[in-house]
Amino acid sequence: MLYKKKVLLLTTLVGFLALVYALTLFFDPERVNSRNAAFLWLDPKFRDQADSIELSRPGDWANPQRLARRGNDWFALLGDEEFPAKSSRVDDLLRALSVRAAYPVRGSAPASHGPMGVAENSAARILVKGGAGLPLLDLLIGGRDASGMEVYLRKNGQNEVRSGQDTLSTYINGVGSSWYNLRIFPTIDQSLVQRLTLIPLPSDETGEQGPSLVITRNGGGWSIAGLEDGTVDTQKVESYIRGVLEAEGENFVPNLKAASASLNEGRITLELGNRSTLTLSVGSLPDAGEEKRRAAAASGSSYVYTLADWTVTRLFRDSAYFVKQE
Questions:
Q1: In whole angstroms, what is the distance from residue 102 CA to residue 117 CA?
Q2: 321 CB contacts (<8 Å, ≥6 apart)?
Q3: Which stretches in the chain have pLDDT values below 50?
Q4: Which domains does the chain have, with CATH numbers?
Q5: Which of 170, 207, 220, 252 has its CA 20 to 30 A from that of 158?
Q6: CA distances from 65 to 42, 75, 242, 279 (A)
Q7: Which candidate, 249, 126, 250, 102, places its Cα nearest to that of 184?
C-alpha cells in the first residue's frame, strides 16, 4: 500500500514538473518573440495575380512610380505613355515582399505611427493591386530604428507596426529610369548577322559626314570595305557587333516619335541571315540647344531613347578602329 502511494506521488510530481516545463517553453519571451517575428507581407500565391504596382516616396503619394502588367510583360507609366520595364526587377520586388523573414512587432497603438514614420501620407508606400484593381498589399515604410539597421513597416489600415531589414527602400528611392528596360534591340543571335552598314553622324566641327562603313561576314571571319582581309581584327569586329545588338539607351524620350526627321543623321543597318534587317537611326534631340544630345530609335519600335556620349562613340566607329595592331 505504501509502495503504491509513493508511485502515485512520484507520478503526480513528474506530471506537474512536465506541465510546468511545457508552460515555461510556451510562454518563454524569446520563443514568443520568435513566433511573432516570422512574417511575410504578401502571400506568395498572390504574386502572380499582381498586375499593378505604385511606389511612392515619403510624403509624395500624389506622384507615384506606376508599373502595370500587360500579359507577361511589365511597363512603366510616364504620363500618358508606357515604356517597357525590367520584368526581373519587378519580380525581385514581389519576391522581397513575399519572403518570410524576421519582422517583430514594435507597436500597436496609433500614437506610435507618427514617431515611427508610418503615418499615412508621410511614409513611403508600396501599393500592389491585382484583378480589377483590388489591393493585394498596401504597405507603408517609415523611419529607421535606433540601430539604423532596420526600418518600421505597417500595413495601411492596420495599427500593428513591425520592423525589419530594409530591403525595399532601394525600389522606392531609385530614379524612374531604374525600372526601364532600355535595351534598344530585342535579343538576337549574333551569328545571324551577315552584314553591317554604318552611315556616320555629321562631324560636330564641320557638319560633314565621313565615309560609310560596310562590314561583311566572310566565312569564319569578316571583311571591311577598303581594308585588306588580313588586316581586319576579327575579335574587334565581333565585339563591336555584339555591342550594337546589346546597346542600351540612357532614358526614354516621351512625346517624340521614332519617325522624327531629327533621327536621320546617322544610321546602322544589320542584315540577318533570315533575310530580315534591323536599323538603328540616330540624331540630335530637338530643342536640345548647345548640348546636342543624341537620341536613337530602332526599326519596328515606337520608342525613342537618349544615348550617353560614350554609347555614341562605341556605336559609330570608322574602319581604322578595326585594323589589327602590330
A1: 20
A2: 236, 240
A3: 7, 20, 22-23, 25-35
A4: 39-179 (2.60.40), 190-322 (2.60.40)
A5: 170
A6: 20, 11, 32, 31
A7: 249
